[in-house]
Amino acid sequence: MLKFLKNVWTWLFLALAVLALRLVLIQVWPDPRTVSQASSQYWTQISISTSRGIIRDSHGAALAMSVPATSLFIDPQYWDPAKAPELKAFLKNLVSDEDLERFSKPMKGRFAWVARKVSPELAARLLSKKIAGLYALKERKRVYPQGALLAHVLGFCDIDDEGLAGLEQSWQDILYSPPQAKILARDAAGQGIDLMSLQRAPKALGPGELILTIDPVLQMVVEKRLREATDEYKPKWAAAVCLDPRDGAVLASASWPTFDPNQRKTLKDPATRVNNVIGRVYEPGSTLKPVIMSIAMEQGLVRENEVFNCAGRVRVADGVVTDIKAHGTQVLPDLIVNSCNVGMAQIGIRFKPRFAYDNLKQWGFSSLSGIELPAEEVGLVSTPEQWRGVVPANIAIGQGIGMTPLQLATALSAVVNGGLCVRPYVVKEARDGQGKVVYRGKAFVKNVVISKKTSDWVRKVMRRVVTSGTGKAANSPKVAVGGKTGTAQVAEHGKYVRGRFVASFAGFWPAEAPDHIMLIVLGEPSRKGHLGGAIAAPAFRAILEDFLLLSR
Q1: The CATH number fitting domain 216-550, selected from 2.60.40.10, 3.40.120.10, 3.40.710.10, 2.40.280.10
Q2: CA-CA distance, 487 to 285, in Å (whole number)?
Q3: Which of 7, 36, 212, 309 has its CA 20 to 30 A from that of 500?
Q4: Who contacts 297 (Cβ-Cβ below 8 Å, separation ≥6)?
Q5: β-strand pairing of 112-118 with 134-143
């Protein structure tokens, strides 16, 4: 009996060994017929984009969203190269000449993209032609319903929905939804099937969303009027930004030249992609004078009724400060109302370099503003060691100091809001995939730079700028406005270039209790004038009156 049992175990072992050997042979040296059948069914594993979070304006309208799209691809094993011209004719610009050449020859592998994220309607019309070897996948495509509106703030994504600029980049963690891996195969009928969709997987929470501070009516008007100004005066660049001076909320922001994130071809020029509101450093000229005057008043360097004499030019150390004309006798407020360079230069030389440098830093110059956007420039304020010769006088008239339009708008907000230097913000609220609020934009006071008394005095002087001074073209019967004009020379290689200027106007309303402050900048206009009061101030008034009319 024992011998018989031993024989049974021997036979069992031999049977298992034969089965194991057979499995090894099948895996290592499979039947060619099996290989051919599996090869005809299996394509590849790919990653496709899923939905990305919505970006909304302050009224809840979508500014960026994801919509269904269809991507087309070829299985070279079933593809007829003779069909390539037909594919090119149907898809036109979606298939390049290089692609046409590649599709017109035999290709290796089992998968080749034809066109990513075309409209489902276009894809359906093409697929209805039953072209052998052409297949489709469902994806999601990032679209911007308002086209170029707010383009530089929103930014754009790559073909796989990775944020590359603007809010799309800086809020990638909230907006991005990781791509879904798909394993593609063919069924018995030759149709594509997604093996991953047949598996059970935990339901994704989905991307979050952003709600912005942007007023859609104001944004539309700002872009319309800024575009008209660029058409008329032909500047090299332009910018406009409007804040609520009380808390720093960005109500509108526009940069020119612009682009349409829906149209990839409009992104080719690097200059077009620059957000001039935060990425352009320029010399502001006379629009900085209210800040300099505020500092001088606060520190007791000037008296309210002090008298200055303007002969049209004044020599300061190794340089000369000139004016548009000889203003004659000017009391202190007149230096702002008439934008007198000679008088402001006399104030500038009273500043102690270290004190002036530290004070300007407190106002936010030569520092990041803190706005929730990437690619912001810090600007340039000369260090105290460089405040020699004519430099203090030049800085007092807004030359020899570099800043972004947003930095200047933020500083001027402190001039008119009672002296509070607030941090600007454009994101009102951010929510995660569960709808939970993970960020809320709100007022944040970085510094108290002047007293309310000084703020009130300078604000009233700026009201006079538009009633009787250089900014009369910005005055409106619709609402009381205050402001300041600016015409700055442009420097190149350390020297100011004849005939090159930056024209600007900064204004606020209502004058007694401002809830809007807006800066318009036209960089190097090439026709019909260059003075801020002549070309930037009218654009300000047009925006203001359009907005008041449409927001009733």
Answers
A1: 3.40.710.10
A2: 6
A3: 309
A4: 304, 450, 454, 457, 458
A5: unpaired
